[in-house]
Amino acid sequence: MELDCDDVLECTSVSDGLGGLNPAAPPIYQTSIFTFPDYDALVAALADENRSTIYSRGRNPTVTEVERRLARLERGEDCKLFASGMGAISAVMLGLLEAGNHVLFVGQVYGPTLQLAQHLARFGLSHDLLRQPAGIEAIAAAIRPETRMIWVESPGTMTFELLDLDAIAALAKARGITTVIDNSWATPLLQKPLTHGFDVVVHTCSKYIGGHSDTVAGAVISTAARIEQIFYRAFLLNGAAIGPLDAWLILRGLRTLPVRLAQVEASALQVIDFLRQHPRVGRLFHPSLDPRTELVARHLRGFSGLLSFELRSAGYAEVRDMLNRLKTFRLAISWGGFESLALAAHRGNNAEALHQAGLPEGLIRISVGLEPADHLIADLRQALRN
Ligand SMILES: *Cc1c(COP(=O)(O)O)cnc(C)c1O
Description:
Blueprint: H1 5-12, H2 39-46, H3 61-73, E1 78-82, H4 85-96, E2 102-106, H5 111-119, E3 126-130, H6 136-142, E4 147-153, H7 165-174, E5 178-182, H8 187-190, E6 200-204, E7 218-222, H9 224-238, H10 244-276, E8 281-285, H11 293-299, E9 306-311, H12 316-325, E10 330-331, E11 341-344, H13 351-356, E12 363-367, H14 373-383
Helix pairs in contact: 1-10, 3-10, 4-5, 4-9, 10-14
Bound molecules: pyridoxal-5'-phosphate.
Pyridoxal-5'-phosphate binds next to α4.
């Protein structure tokens, strides 16, 4: 992992200008409203709500501080922070799309994102999913006259395939289609989709960016014009505003993001070395194993610690028994925290859905945390015994 020096400074620097005192840990502006010295000032602020600090459903200085940092990390003009990743994702769809539009989803996309698109069919939005596109031609062929958005996740959910962002952005630009990527796996430190020509980046900040399993948040980064459209058409009216304390926890998480990522990459690569030699482990899914080395190097500065593997010829019972034997790896959804977690794709009743999605029944996803790698490997070894 070779992180950009400016990025590390962006994460770790002391906030300047907040109250003029430059405290190392910035204040939490725990206030719903801001008062004005005279009525003209209040009226002027209301006329420019996106840039004015009036009411914390719109703008709050602790929240703005996170937005400034995330915008710079993604090399975007502006950012809006939300009360969850899904808050950010829904605001992008509601803020940028109209009835009659079609969204093309490409890759293994986060399940609730697809569920949201299904719900929005009631409002005249249609969509298709190209789960495993066979090259850029397959994506081009799936575009319809009414396609207004191409939505990708790369590396994708559960199996972490990489897509060629430069090629997809070029294709979409030529057709006037907005491109959106869920960049949560890589974080802005490992991949910067806007520099590949993408228009909009969304993140859940509940995973690596927050990093301590103590807060739920999300973000959208794009041009100032698109963020303004999302602000007025979705953010301010939907009301999925993040509280100042949660925004502050994201700032706290950002400070250690570079060292946490470096640590989980080192441990994940050791865990992968162990798993690939284990007789009960079939396919392994992590971008470090992708043979397309040019594609990987063009997109990623390193690898995060979320990976999956196939327990050979395993159904629900074998998957469950293996998970139940884990001790250090805890059983939970989510990922990207300080603690190692494990989860299966199999939920006991969804074998058919897994087959349709092209996922092996024995798929187990692990999020490698900050515990010593030897300890994690020992835990996996005892859980994988027959
Ligand atoms: C968790 C997750 C989300 C949703 O984020 P929340 O903060 O839980 O709403 C979106 N995308 C990906 C890839 C995720 O893993």
